[in-house]
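Before drawing any conclusions, I looked closely at one protein's amino acid sequence and its backbone structure tokens, quoted below without any editing.
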Amino acid sequence: MTNRLHDNEIPIDGDLVRQLIDTQFPQYRSQPLQALDATGSTNRLFRLGPDLLVRLPRQPDGKSIDKEDRWLPILAQHLPVSVPEIVGIGDPGCGYTERWSITRWLDGQSPGACRPEDSVSAERSTLANDLADFILALRETDCPESTTSDPTLDGYRGHTLIEYDDQTRINIQECRSITDLDIDLDAASRIWNEAIELPATPEAPLRCYHGDLVSENLLMVDNRLTAVLDFGELGVEDSTVDLHGAWELFDKEARQIFRTRLEADESEWLRGRAWALAISLSTFTYYWNTMPRRREDRLAMVRNAIADSE
């Protein structure tokens, strides 16, 4: 994986991060700093000593740092697993233009994707229940009316599918030019066409959604979900999008456990599958060459989604 993922990527290296820490958090000057290979598309990640993680936005004008600073302490009180605990927010400096954060290090391993040919495993059924418990707790979190005026909580993943229709059709066409992409794009197009004809989402109370519940944002210890990471897509609106990880994380049996636990009706479930399709396709068109692990996880996601429609 290359370090540069975006056209407007901000240069970030260990020397810069060391300067920022030493200048703004001198209490951590003696802590060793290590760049992580498993860095995200939104933030560069550096481990600081044994107990801390440094996260720096890759692009200008990001909202995720301030969003997490405001909302994670509130959500942490209501969720059944750990979320990042922010211990410090850094300001722009040393030529770096964005706010950045230091959080507590969370131990665990990501579960990885579940491909259509993978055998059924009891661990995935356990994860299906654990992730459903997380989503239910997140949905039940009290959302004050003031959340509707918080611009950081207005993400496209909480909107209707029709609002993402044009972009998804563009992504399907662009994917046809990826020679190594071995998926049935005609089937993908059919699934999408059917999904946008589904009945409109009924009016419902404001509900929080994470927006990116996929393998790379989950941590497990002893086959149990222990932490959920990266709340950069956190929003308050239609939480159907939080179903989309089911087609990356679970085999068919575990997906059914997940659906039953969440009491998802047919329309909601098919919208969740359509989000799995759309998010996968956008990954292929943007990160095909730069994020091979994410590419492979989304290949599993889209193949499971297509297999479920057959």
In short: The radius of gyration is 19 Å. The domain at 122-308 is CATH 3.90.1200.10 (Aminoglycoside 3'-phosphotransferase; Chain: A, domain 2). The chain has a mean pLDDT of 92. The first strand starts at residue 33 and ends at 35.
